[in-house]
């Protein structure tokens, strides 16, 4: 049986990532999202058309993928990725691609994967910048909290207010899918690295992320041992 990839978010990063993964023929997909297709999404969420406006992204994405990748196995699970459901959604999953559009979900994805020992790739895009961070082995060391310690205290920019270039989302989704396929194929060379593309200069770079001393998730004395809801209330941001 092919490995299962959980894709969080059917937005600007999630749709190109999902297409590449579905067409690879190397995995099954479990999709989770709770949003509907809006006109302002169409420039970056490349599998939706005007005919999909008002439809659930989950249904539209599943249909678009099945039409293009015949035979692909897709589980579409409506709703958000929440502290209460996270571990259940990770059951049987070999790898997570996080294409969430807010910090709260991103930190939750990281913590849930770290606790469950599931590898995770985080893709994000905002304005001109696309990033893709591949956590260390089994979703930690280094983890997303080694990069960004905790949720931002105040409001963070999001694509609706700060904007994002459509192709920049495609870069992030492509990098995330590529990292996922490498990982599933046994290549760990990108573990613990962050790729970043700046569309305003065309520059691409990859850095090694150092494990953070005292990291709440993967440090010597981790403070995170469960997924308490209060920890994941935060401002929106991202793709
Ligand atoms: Zn960490």
Q: Fraction of residues in helices?
A: 25-40%
Attached small molecules: zinc ion
CATH topology group: Rossmann fold
Report the structural category: alpha/beta
Largest sheet: 8 strands, mixed
Description:
This protein has 239 residues and is an alpha/beta fold. The protein has a single domain (4-232), classed as NAD(P)-binding Rossmann-like Domain (Rossmann fold). It contains 7 helices and 8 strands, in the order E-H-E-H-E-H-E-H-E-E-H-H-H-E-E. The protein has helices spanning 14-24, 57-68, 86-89, 103-116, 144-147, 159-162, 166-184, and strands spanning 4-8, 28-33, 74-78, 95-98, 120-126, 129-134, 193-198, 203-208. It has an 8-stranded mixed sheet with strand order 3-2-1-4-5-6-7-8, sandwiched between helices. Helix 1 (14-24) links the parallel strand 1 (4-8) and strand 2 (28-33). Helix 1 packs parallel to helix 2 and helix 1 packs parallel to helix 7. The model is unreliable at 235-239 (pLDDT under 50). Residues 140, 142-143, 145-146, 211-212, 215, 217-218 line the site of zinc ion (ZN).
List the SSEs and their pairings.
Layout: E1 4-8, H1 14-24, E2 28-33, H2 57-68, E3 74-78, H3 86-89, E4 95-98, H4 103-116, E5 120-126, E6 129-134, H5 144-147, H6 159-162, H7 166-184, E7 193-198, E8 203-208
Parallel strand pairs: 1-2, 1-4, 2-3, 4-5
Antiparallel strand pairs: 5-6, 6-7, 7-8
List keywords for this structure.
single chain, binds zinc ion, alpha/beta, 239 residues, 19% strand
């Amino acid at each position: 049986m092919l490995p299962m990839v959980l894709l969080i978010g059917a937005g600007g990063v999630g749709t190109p990532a999902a297409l590449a993964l579905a067409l690879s023929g190397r995995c099954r997909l479990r999709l989770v999202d709770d949003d509907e297709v809006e006109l302002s999404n169409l420039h970056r969420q490349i599998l939706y058309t005007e005919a999909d406006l008002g439809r659930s992204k989950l249904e539209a994405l599943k249909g678009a993928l099945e039409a293009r990748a015949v035979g692909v196995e897709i589980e579409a699970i409506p709703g958000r990725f929440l502290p209460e459901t996270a571990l259940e959604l990770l059951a049987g999953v070999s790898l997570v691609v996080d294409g969430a559009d807010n910090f709260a979900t991103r930190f939750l994805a990281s913590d849930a994967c770290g606790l469950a020992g599931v590898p995770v790739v985080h893709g994000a895009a905002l304005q001109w910048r696309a990033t893709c961070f591949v956590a260390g082995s089994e979703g930690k060391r280094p983890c997303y909290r080694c990069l960004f310690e905790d949720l931002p205290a105040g409001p963070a920019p999001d694509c609706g207010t700060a904007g994002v270039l459509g192709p920049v989302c495609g870069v992030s989704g492509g990098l995330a899918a590529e990292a996922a396929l490498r990982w599933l194929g046994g290549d760990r060379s990108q573990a613990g690295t962050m790729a970043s593309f700046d569309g305003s200069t065309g520059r691409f770079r990859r850095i090694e992320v150092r494990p953070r001393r005292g990291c709440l998730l993967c440090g010597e004395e981790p403070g995170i041992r469960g997924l308490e809801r209060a920890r994941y209330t935060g401002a929106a941001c991202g793709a």
